[in-house]
Specification:
The chain has about 325 residues and is an alpha/beta fold. The protein folds into 2 domains: about 190 residues, DHBP synthase, CATH 3.90.870; about 80 residues, Threonylcarbamoyl-AMP synthase, C-terminal domain (Rossmann fold, 3-Layer(aba) Sandwich), CATH 3.40.50.11030. It starts with 5 loop residues before the first helix and ends with a helix.
């Protein structure tokens, strides 16, 4: 792996190269917004479908006005409260200001400001970046530099920013029919958004969209090569490999990969992708996953990620 400094990352990005960068959510594969060849290389590196739009990362909320066709009600409150942070907003844009390949031909684009000082320093020097997660499409996201190396080897230089503090992608909101709706579950729960919006945003049903409104909408995601069997009932030895919790017993399991305490969804979310990647590092073909957890807050996100990871193609 080629590990580079912030200044070297800035130089390479200005030279229209692809660089892996840290955020509080996951590591991203970054290119400058207008560098069409570098943006296309991201799609090729990730093996990402061309109709899957990218998130644009900004340094300041005020930079939105350069791209947005309109600013929906509540935008200022959301950005004041949650930026920098794990919130992405899908907004209608002036289409000639956002490259078509970035927005996948849609009249909207997704924006956020990451909460990581190294990446914020890069954004301030270089300008807006696109930065989808630094993993092969469909695989568990990268939350450490080692994860980036697992998927890309020395093909992508990376700015080392330590393990991602959240370990879960940003929540994506889209404004539809006069209300903000959750287009992708993420690190911010609906319950956390409610005090700012004055209502709890519902999920946006994009199942009939010809193209995804945002990343993570239509495709199998977050999946190891190993098959996941989701356990909604107590473990009775269905598989010898178990993904479970440190405060529970799984009699008969020969391999136990722990996510953390079943009372601590933040720790579970932080460890989730690394544990899923462990299955492949260990060459395991299948695992039983303890899904006897809550349904609200971050647990809803964890459940959604595991359900998507377990879908068979």
């Amino acid at each position: 792996m080629v590990r580079i400094s912030v200044s070297e990352a800035c130089r390479r990005l200005i030279d229209e190269e692809v660089v892996a960068i840290p955020t509080e959510t996951v590591y991203g594969l970054a290119a400058t917004l207008e560098a069409s060849d570098a943006v296309q290389r991201i799609f090729v590196l990730k093996q990402r479908p061309a109709n899957n739009p990218l998130i644009i990362h900004l340094a300041e909320p005020s930079h939105l006005v350069a791209y947005a066709k309109e600013i929906p009600p509540g935008t200022d409150a959301l950005t004041a409260h949650f930026w920098p942070g794990p919130l992405t907003l899908v907004l209608p844009v002036v289409t000639n200001r956002v490259p078509e390949q970035v927005r996948a031909g849609l009249p909207t684009a997704a924006f956020r400001i990451p909460r990581h000082e190294l990446t914020l320093a890069i954004l301030r020097q270089v300008g807006p970046l696109v930065a989808p997660s630094a993993n092969l499409s469909g695989r568990p996201s990268a939350t450490t530099v080692e994860h980036v190396e697992e998927d890309f080897g020395d093909r992508v230089p990376v700015v080392e920013g330590g393990p991602c503090t959240s370990g879960m992608e940003s929540t994506i909101l889209a404004y539809r029919d006069g209300l903000w709706r959750i287009a992708r579950l993420g690190a911010l729960s609906a319950e956390e958004l409610e005090p700012v919006l004055g209502y709890r945003p519902a999920l946006y049903d994009g199942s009939h969209d010809s193209s995804p409104l945002c990343p993570g909408s239509l495709y199998r995601h977050y999946a190891p090569k190993a098959k996941l069997v989701l356990g909604r009932e107590p473990y009775t030895g269905q598989l010898s490999v178990v993904i479970g919790y440190s405060d529970r017993q799984y009699p008969g399991a020969s391999t136990l990969l722990t996510l953390g305490p079943s009372s601590d969804p933040d720790t579970v979310a932080h460890h989730l992708y690394d544990v899923l990647r462990q299955l492949d590092r260990m060459g395991l073909s299948a695992a039983w996953v303890d899904l006897q957890v809550g349904h609200d807050g971050l647990w809803a996100v964890i459940r959604e990620r595991l359900n998507k990871a377990a879908v068979e193609t």
